[in-house]
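seq as requested:
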Amino acid sequence: MNKLLITVGLAWLLARTASAQSTPTTVEVDYLSLVNAERTFAAYTEQEGIKAGFFRFLAPTALVIVQKKFASGKPLYEKSAFIPGCLSWWPAYADISASGDFGYTTGPFEVRPKGKTDAPVAFGHFTTVWQKNSSGVWEVLIDVGIQHDRPVPSVADLVTPASFHQKHTADVDTTERRSELIEAENQLAQRAGGQSLQVAYQYALAKEFPVRLYRASRIPSVGLEAVTVAKLETIPAEYTLTGVKIASSGDMGFSYGYVAYEQKAGAFLRIWKRWPDSSWKVVHEVLDL
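struct tokens:
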């Protein structure tokens, strides 16, 4: 009897150990699958065309920008006629939430008149926010882009992080976290409208993080360059918030809406991360003006 108990106990312990070893403790696997989803999206679109690519990879509720206004992407591409040209892109940076089911990718894109052997005639940077659906498949939640001159030097391919944070499995009050993010967005908007973007950025931009500021017709600013650009934004900006969405782990989210700045109007997308001190900070912003 004792031998039987020992045998059963040992089998249980080995099963638990194997299970623990097979369960990822970090978000590395999720991060790699996110990057692979972006690359697959790009390869499929380059091969099958813009209409087919976006219709396949956009979530049913996905948003895109058309003439500086947000539109429902799935029906837009479903109903559109054939879209000429070859659109090529690749991820140069990606980040993922602690839940491993929500993240974003960004990098350069090029437009060619017909096929990928043509010389590119337009350049820019994309920003795509992704979320896993109920089947565990990555889908695009929102996709935006800015055009600019040819970048020199050209943007390199993705460099995978040296380490990954722990995967989050505990329950989070996402309603409360969403309210926190809306309040952070409102505080940014009040400072930007009442004083200037510079003042708003002092409040909202993440410190010691490679912040990205994207502006239509400008090469993106990253890291210290973005901080320098932020200090020069001394003109007020008027923001109108349209929507907010956060990860199930409550540590990452995005806000989107409309902005009026420097006598121009357009759409904005901001990606936020929640810091250990419970504050929300902007890590990525796109102003499509």
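Helices lie at 2-22, 28-48, 50-57, 73-79, 174-194, 197-204, 224-231.
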